[in-house]
């Protein structure tokens, strides 16, 4: 069997998830890692995710087919000069950072362009650390590749195939375009979420009415405010130019909204919400995105003891695994409805068909 050595620097949420996916799909590969947290490395060895834990970037990294840089972005860039000696001609050096220009610039400086293909799995969560990592995190998620100008097409093809084998969806982009696009769809939303949460904290009443009354909508758009502070600090520092421009443009949009409110401009206010509804509704639920897609359906349940158990039994006896199940209450479903999440689209479709056959009212989303 063909074995390869894969190295990781940083084995947290993303590094850990990729390592676990490699372990799952290429069990014969040899995995090694360096992380500043000794506990993380010990756990990864104990769980059988990696074979070798390294106390620094050392000789172990020589001969790797892939080296994944998965620490916060400023550290990834800083480690390149230490890594350089261990990067052989066949090695594909890659990262998973949310910003690409800074690492590409350092790669050019160090003459590592023939080896470097930037990477960015558009998957993750507000959680962090190896303990939260899982192979399914990158499954069906877009995985952006930003090849250096001098890397061979053969290496790009090999990396693309590797990403596909890990069940992610490779997309090749220019690194500068990557930073503008992710600046808008990922970095700006994180800044909005965090500043909105802080705004509520700073303007709340003495008895914290806002904190206690905050409803689903507020929680939906601020989930990501619980993300790793060091990671987002570094993203803002490294994608400064794009984020500054995007914030300026977005503040202009907010000012227009304020003007419409100040002037009681009925038409403008209606359009604001109608346009956003149309565009948001046109985003396919099944497309992969920064927020990992979910395969869920909603189902009315008969209000009697054992209602959930009956549905779970129907699904289990048809070999459909449930990822998550629970009753939700919101304005859309005032009476409460059962939300059932599945691991993939086909399971969700099969479950919907089956439950309809049993005369359940099913809402597919
Ligand atoms: N969290 C997310 O949703 C996503 C994160 N990313 C990128 O992935 C990278 C890692 O993020 P996460 O895995 O979420 O973070 P994390 O905090 O879960 O993991 C980072 C890991 O790096 C280690 N580390 C920190 N500083 C280090 C250093 N100086 N030397 C060696 N190891 C060090 C930590 O001990 C930890 O195990 C970042 O560059 C981020 O931009 C990319 C896509 C999604
Ligand atoms: O939690 C979420 O929805 C995210 O937005 C996760 C995420 C964070 C950083 C990235 O570079 C990509 C994805």
From TrEMBL:
One of its GO terms (biological process) is tyrosine biosynthetic process. Its EC number is 1.3.1.12. Keywords: Amino-acid biosynthesis, Aromatic amino acid biosynthesis, NAD, Oxidoreductase, Tyrosine biosynthesis. It is an enzyme of class 1 (oxidoreductase). InterPro entries: 6-PGluconate_DH-like_C_sf, ACT-like_dom_sf, NAD(P)-bd_dom_sf, PDH_C, PDH_N, Preph/Arog_dehydrog, Prephen_DH. It comes from the Bacteria. Gene3D superfamilies: 6-phosphogluconate dehydrogenase C-terminal like domain, NAD(P)-binding Rossmann-like Domain. It catalyses: prephenate + NAD(+) = 3-(4-hydroxyphenyl)pyruvate + CO2 + NADH. It holds the Pfam family PDH_C. PROSITE patterns: PDH_ADH (PS51176). SUPFAM superfamilies: 6-phosphogluconate dehydrogenase C-terminal domain-like, ACT-like, NAD(P)-binding Rossmann-fold domains. Pathway: Amino-acid biosynthesis; L-tyrosine biosynthesis; (4-hydroxyphenyl)pyruvate from prephenate (NAD(+) route): step 1/1. The keyword NAD applies. GO terms for molecular function: NAD+ binding; prephenate dehydrogenase (NAD+) activity; prephenate dehydrogenase (NADP+) activity. Residues 4-291 form the Prephenate/arogenate dehydrogenase domain. Belongs to the prephenate/arogenate dehydrogenase family. This is Prephenate dehydrogenase.
């Amino acid at each position: 069997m063909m074995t390869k050595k894969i190295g990781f620097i940083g084995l947290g949420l993303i590094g850990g998830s990729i390592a676990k996916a490699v372990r799952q799909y290429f069990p014969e590969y040899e995995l090694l890692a360096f992380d500043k947290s000794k506990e993380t490395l010990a756990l990864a060895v104990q769980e059988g995710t990696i074979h070798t834990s390294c106390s620094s970037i050392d000789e172990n990294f020589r001969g790797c087919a892939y080296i994944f840089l998965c620490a916060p972005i400023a550290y990834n860039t800083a480690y390149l000069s230490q890594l350089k000696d261990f990067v052989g001609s066949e090695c594909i050096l890659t990262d998973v950072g949310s910003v690409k220009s800074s690492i590409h610039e350092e790669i050019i400086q160090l003459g590592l362009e023939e080896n470097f293909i930037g990477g960015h799995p558009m998957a993750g969560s507000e959680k962090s650390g190896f303990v939260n990592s899982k192979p399914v995190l990158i499954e069906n998620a877009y995985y952006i590749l930003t090849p250096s100008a001098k890397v061979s097409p053969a290496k790009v093809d090999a990396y693309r195939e590797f990403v596909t084998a890990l069940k992610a969806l490779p997309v090749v982009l220019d690194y500068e375009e990557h930073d503008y696009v992710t600046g808008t769809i990922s970095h700006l939303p994180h800044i909005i979420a965090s500043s909105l949460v802080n705004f509520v904290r700073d303007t709340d009443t003495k008895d914290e009415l806002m904190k206690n009354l905050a409803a689903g909508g507020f929680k939906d758009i601020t989930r990501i405010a619980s993300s790793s502070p060091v990671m987002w600090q570094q993203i803002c520092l490294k994608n400064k130019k794009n984020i500054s421009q995007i914030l300026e443009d977005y503040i202009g949009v907010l000012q227009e909204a304020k003007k419409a409110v100040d002037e009681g401009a009925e038409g403008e206010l209606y359009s604001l919400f109608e346009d956003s509804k149309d565009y948001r509704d046109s985003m396919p639920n099944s497309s992969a995105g920064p927020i990992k897609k979910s395969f869920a359906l909603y189902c009315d349940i008969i209000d009697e003891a054992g209602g959930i158990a009956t549905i779970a039994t129907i699904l289990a006896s048809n070999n459909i695994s449930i990822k998550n199940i629970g009753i939700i209450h919101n304005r859309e479903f005032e009476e409460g409805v059962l939300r059932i999440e599945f691991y993939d689209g086909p399971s969700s479709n099969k479950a919907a068909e089956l439950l309809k056959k049993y005369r359940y009212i099913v809402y597919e989303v």
